[in-house]
Amino acid sequence: MNAQLANWDDLRVFLAVARAGSLSGAARSLGVNHSTVFRRIAGFEETLGVRLFDRLPTGYALTPAGEETLRIVESIEADVATLDRTVTGQDLRLSGTVRITATDILAFWLLPDLLARFRTAYPGIEVEVVVGNEALNLSRRETDIALRIGNTPPETLVGRRVGRLEFAVYGAPDYLSANPGNDLAQHNWIGLDSAHAPLTRRFEEFLPGAHPTVRSNSVACAVQMAKAGLGLAVLPSAIANQKPDLTRFAEVPDAFNLDLWLLTHEDLRHTARIRAVLDFLTPALAERLKGGGTRPVS
Question: What are phi and psi of 52, to 5 degrees?
Fold first, then answer.
């Protein structure tokens, strides 16, 4: 690659298209419009003098030259991320932006009041919350801190286990009045998709013959559907116990629970603003979880 390729934005656009397999998918991930991505890719190919993508009815597929370019650009991306983390990790200022990613249910019901208190204590730190079930990549600096549920966090990350979310079976009072039976297999169920693998596996273990009548990729949506009377759902007690329009109907066998983690990258753990967020949220989340059907972790 020659000196004309010094524009990192062109490389980012190329990576986004290669990973998404389409202009529209790349545009969404980059937060730009479709035509911008099209122009960038066309200009990048013109600069290189080679076609990087085959334009197919199903999307954009890498050519052999594109595959080789991807290998090189991913190496550049890793080096840029390392530089970014190394420099950021030396930042001692209690100011700047900290990006937190969390699933919808955590972002909606656990974080808002805690972040309001944090902003009062640290007015110079701006917090961005990215809501989604997909795991953003901390190594590529897509996020600075991840609030994740699961008993096996990635080995490449460092962080703290702040508590355990316990789960139970909940339903709306009207639904339970109309369906009074205690046989769980006979009830309508609200299920989750493969994005919530630990929960779906546990559901299949204790009710192997049951099939959800409706599914969602969102626990927050499952809460709303349970409140609407669509059926029973396995929900985190820290959230569902606070809902007057949901009734705790049954326990999940063997007291199913999942750990709640605050995670960051090793290179960022000593950055002052990120350390401030971690040090504030860890005890605040642990305290919040104590009263909501969860167990704190010693």
Answer: -95, -25
Asked if residue 184 and residue 64 are part of one domain, the reply reads no
Residues 116 and 175 in one domain: yes
The half-sphere exposure of 29 on its side-chain side, counting CA atoms within 13 A, is 20
**Contact between 146 and 101 (Cβ < 8 Å):** yes
Reduce the DSSP state of residue 238 to 3 states and report it.
helix
The number of distinct structural domains making up the chain is 2
Which class for 75: exposed (0-12), middle (13-18), buried (19 or more C-beta within 10 A)?
A: exposed
Q: How many residues are listed for the chain in this entry?
A: 298
100 and 190 part of one domain: yes
Identify the three-state secondary structure at position 261. Answer: strand
Q: What is the pLDDT of residues 102-149, one digit of tens each?
A: 888 888 888 999 999 999 999 999 999 988 765 545 445 578 898 888
Domain region containing 19: 3-88
Domain boundary among 26, 55, 88: 88
Answer whether 0.90 is exceeded by the pTM. Answer: no
Q: What b-and-e string marks burial along 189-210, b requiring 16 or more CB atoms within 10 Å of the CB?
A: bbbbeebbeebbebbeebbeeb
